[in-house]
Amino acid sequence: VTTNPRPPHPTTSPALRSWIETANDPAGDFPIQNLPWCVFHNPDDDMDVVGVRVGDRLVDCAMLHDAGVLDDDHHEHGPVCDALTAPDLLDLAALPRAMRVALREKLQAFLAEGAAGGQRARRLREKAVFAVDEVELRAPMERVPNYTDFYASVHHATNVGSMFRPTNPLLPNYKHIPIGYHGRASSIVVSGTPVVRPSGQHAPAEEGGTPTFGPCKLLDYELEVGAFLAGGNELGSPIPLAHAEDHILGLVLVNDWSARDLQKWEYQPLGPFLAKSFATTVSPYVVTPEALSPFRCGAYERPAGDPAPLPYLADPANEQTGGFDITLEVWLASAEMRDRGMGPVRLSRGSFRQMYWTLAQMLAHHASNGCNLLPGDLIASGTVSGPERDARGSMLELTWNGDPFATPPKLVPGTDRTPIQLPTGEARAFLADGDEVVLRGWCEHPTFRRIGFGECRGVVAAGNHRT
Ligand code: CA
Fold first, then answer.
1. C-alpha to C-alpha distance for 453 and 444, rounded to whole angstroms
2. For burial by CB atoms within 10 Å, which of 151, 331, 346, 371 has the most?
3. How many angstroms does the Cα of residue 328 sit away from the middle of ligand 1?
4. How far is it, in rounded angstroms, from Cα 219 to Cα 395?
5. DSSP secondary structure letters along 60-71
6. Using alpha carbons only, what angle is made at residue 42 by residues 36 and 44, rounded to the nearest 5 degrees?
7. Ligand 1 being an ion, which residues bring their Cβ within 5 A of it?
8. Preceding peptide of 269 cis, ω within 30°
9. 321 with 296: CB under 8 angstroms?
10. Is the pLDDT at 402 greater than 80, yes or no?
11. Catalytic residue among 9, 65, 155, 156
12. Rounded mean pLDDT of 218-229?
C-alpha cells in the first residue's frame, strides 16, 4: 500500500462555506477553499495592498492584520506584518511556507460561515472587503526579480519542431533535460495591460539578402502556467527535487506573447531574445499549492523507449503526484466582434497534466548548477499543448504556421494548415491589432470544490513603428 505523498490540505475541505455568498457558487473559480493571493488598489486608503480573492470580493489582508485577525500575538514589526503591509507579494514570498499556511488558515477562519460575528468583526467585514469590479488589480510582483521560460510540453516541442525540421522534430537533449531560457522580467505585465505590437528584424527574402526592419507580422500568444517562487537557495546550493515544491508561492496563467517572424531570424544560435521580451502577461491571482492539493496527478507517463530521467530529476513522489490537473483554455475576440457585442470564441482546450516535465523537475534542474533562485522569481512552463488538434496552445500550432500574407490566410489542402475562422467572417493565421486573447484555467474533481485561476487577458495594440 502506498500513501499519497501530497494529500489534500485541510483548507480544501468541501464542507467549508463562506458568509460571502458568491463564494458558495459551485461554478465559481474562487470558493473559500481557494483564497489566491493578489495585490489590489484600496481606494479608501489610496494604496496598493496584499489581498485574497473570495467569490466576487477582494479582502484587504493588511487591514485584517492591523485588526489582529491574522496574528495571535499581533506583532507590529514582525515578518508577517511586513509581508502584509507591503505593496506586493515579494515579502510574502520570502516568508517560510508554514507562516503562509498559518495565514491562510486564519483568513479562512475569518471568512467562514458561522465565524464569530460581534460588532468589531461586522465593521471589519464592511471595511476590509471590496467588490472586485470596483477596484483595480495590480501585478503580483511590482518587480519580478528573474523570469525563466521552459519548453516542457513534448507535444508543443514536437509540433513546432516538425514545422521547421520535419525529419528531426525533437532534438536529442529534449527527453533528458528540461529546456529553458532566461526571459525578460521587466516587461512582465498584469492581465488587462495592452500589448503593443513589436517591430524588429525580418529575415531576408532570399538567402544572402538584406534583412528588413518593421512591424511584426506573425504575432502569436503562448498558453502557459507560471510559478511564482517562494524562499530561494543560496548561490552554490542546489535545490533537491524532493524540496523543490517548498519553493513555490503559487501558480498563475501566463501568456508568453511571441513574434514568430522575428524569432525565426534571431533565435539561432543563442535562443529567443527580442521575439519574446516585449511583453509577458500574468493573471493577477496566485493560486497556492494548498488550494491545488486535491488536483495533483502523476508526472507524464513516458512511453516505452523514452529514457528515464537522471537521478537528480527523479523520485517516487514526483512520479506519483508531481503533476497538476489544470484545464486550460484560450479564447479570442477581435475588435469587430467586440464592436458587434459578440463574446470571445474558444480556440483551444488542453490540460497541464500533459507536460513532459513537472514544475518540481524544472525548479530542481534550474538550481542544479547552484544558480540562486529568489523569492518572487517567475518560472513559466512553456506552451501547454496536448496531443489533439484543439489542445494546441499557440496560434502557430493551430494554423500550422499559416501564411498571413495571403488574403484570406492560405489554406493548404490535405494539411491542417488552415486559418481560424471567426464568427464575423474574419480569418486569422496570427493576431491582428485589436484582438483580445483570454486565457482561462481551473481544476475540477467530483468531491472537491472547483478551484479556478480567473483570466489572463491582453489586447493587441497597434505599434509605434519606425523603420
Ligand atoms: Ca514560451
1. 12
2. 151
3. 15
4. 9
5. EHHHHHHTTSS-
6. 150
7. 149, 222, 256
8. yes
9. yes
10. no
11. 156
12. 97
Residue 145: burial class (beta carbons within 10 Å; 0-12, 13-18, 19+): middle
Q: How far is the CA of 112 from the centre of ligand 1 (A)?
A: 39
Q: Which tens digits make up the pLDDT trace of 403-451?
A: 554 444 555 554 566 789 999 999 999 999 999 999 999 999 999 999 9
pLDDT-based confidence at residue 166 (cuts at 50, 70, 90): confident
Q: Are strands 188-190 and 436-445 parallel, antiparallel or unpaired?
A: unpaired
Closest of 283, 267, 276, 253 to residue 184, by C-alpha: 276
Secondary structure (3-state) at 367: helix
Question: Looking at residues 6-17, what average pLDDT do you find?
Answer: 96
Q: Is the pLDDT of residue 399 over 90?
A: no
- Count the residues in the chain: 467
For ligand 1, the distance from its centroid to the CA atom of residue 183, given in whole angstroms, is: 9
Matching residue, cell 497541464? 352
- Pairwise CA distance, residues 434 & 380, whole Å: 26
Does residue 408 have a cis bond before it (omega within 30 degrees)? yes
Query: Is 9 marked active-site?
Result: no
Q: Which three cell numbers stand for residue 199?
A: 517591430
